[in-house]
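@channel sequence for tomorrow's demo:
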Amino acid sequence: MQAAPVHTGDVPALRKGLAVLELLASDGPLTLAEIQRRGALNKTMTFRLIRVLRETGYVRHDQESHRYSVALKLLDLGGAVAARLDIVRVGQSLLDRLRGEFGETINLGVMDERHVVYIAMAESSQPGLRMASRVGGLGCLHSTSIGKAILAFLPEPDRDALISKLVWTAVTPKTITNLDALRDELERTRLRGYATDDEENEIGARCVGVPILDGAGLPLAAISVSGPTARIGNDALDAMSERLWEASRKISSNLGYSFATANGASPHPRRVGEV
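C-alpha cells (generated this afternoon):
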C-alpha cells in the first residue's frame, strides 16, 4: 500500500484508515501484523485504526484465524450509491420529457440525513427566474417540495423522529419554522397527494413535488416541478401533480417495484396511468 500524499489541512489518520479499508478490500483477510507491514504503519496506529473500524462496523475479525476483513456495512454503502445512480439512470429521460411538457425545471432529489440532495435535474431554458438548486446541492427538508413530499409519505414514527430533530432554518420569510405547522402541512400533503413550496425556499419560486415510492409505498426519492410563481399558478398544481405521479410510478416500475396488491389497489393517493 503506497502512502498517500499529505496536503494542507489534511487528516492523516482518516487517510490511513481509508487506506487500510482499501488494503483489506483488495488483499484481505489479513492479520494485524500483515496490515501493519503492508500499510507501512506502526503497531500502535494499526491497532487504533482496526479498533475504530471494527467498532463502526466496517471491519470484522475472525476469532479462529485472527484475520481481519471488510464487513457487510460497506455493501450497504455501495448499495445506497447504486440505488441513487439507478434512480438517475431511469429517471433522467422522464425529467427531460416533463421539462419539454411544462417548460419549467424538473428536479429529482433524495433524503440524506436531515437534508435533501438534488441528484438529477432538467433545467428550464425559459427566461426569468433562475432556480438556485443544482445537482449535488443541498436543500432543507422543511422548505422544499421534495423534502416535504418525502417526509409526508414516511411511516409516522419515522417522520416524527426526523422532524423533531430538524434545525428550523428560515430560508425565506415564508419558510415554515415550527413543528406544529410542518405537521399540519405534511398532513395536507398526504391528503391532496402532492407537496408544495410557495416561496418557502426561494423568493419568487413555486414548486410542486411528489414522492417516488418503492413496492411497500415508502419514499425512495421525490420529483418536482419548479419555476416562477407567475408561471406556476395554483390552478396548475393539480394537473402538474398528476403528471409527476405518472413519472414517479414509471420510475418505480423501471426500478423493479410493483404496486399491485391482492385487491388491485395502489398505495398512491391518486391512481394514474403510465407516462
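heads up for whoever presents: Residues 260-267, 269-275 have pLDDT under 50 and may be disordered.
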